[in-house]
Design a protein that fits this description.
about 120 residues, mainly alpha, about 80% helix, elongated
Length: about 120
């Protein structure tokens, strides 16, 4: 990869925010129990060092809550559809943020490996 394409890749990585606000993942149809899980996810994503194990646990809890809510709304298909559409948007935002975190981790690891290699060559 040449410097120009690397700069382009770095610019693409930087365009996706790694922080979300409550307004990004809460919507008019968000139930109370999901609000509290979303708050914890936002706190985790706002931390200086994201605990990936904790984040995964929260996202799994969130998924269970969404699935339960969809089941509960089964008797009201229109409300179920509205909730599902709103949650699809939220899910896509979470996927983008998590993908960005993976890319950042890969970049950090690459820098670490290059740094270690440079130190070995310097010795």
């Amino acid at each position: 990869m040449n410097d120009k394409s690397k700069a382009s890749t770095d610019a693409q990585v930087a365009t996706v925010p790694t922080r979300l606000l409550e307004t990004d993942i809460n919507h008019a149809h968000t139930p109370e129990d999901l609000l509290s899980i979303n708050k914890l996810i936002i706190e985790q994503l706002s931390a200086d060092n994201v605990d990936d194990t904790e984040l995964l646990s929260l996202i799994e809890q969130r998924d269970d809550c969404v699935q339960n809510t969809l089941e509960q709304l089964g008797a009201a298909p229109e409300r179920q559809k509205e909730f599902a559409l709103a949650e699809t948007e939220v899910n896509n935002k979470l996927i983008r943020v998590c993908n960005q975190l993976v890319k950042q981790a890969q970049n950090d690891l690459t820098k670490l490996v290059k740094g270690r290699k440079a130190i070995r060559q310097y010795r």
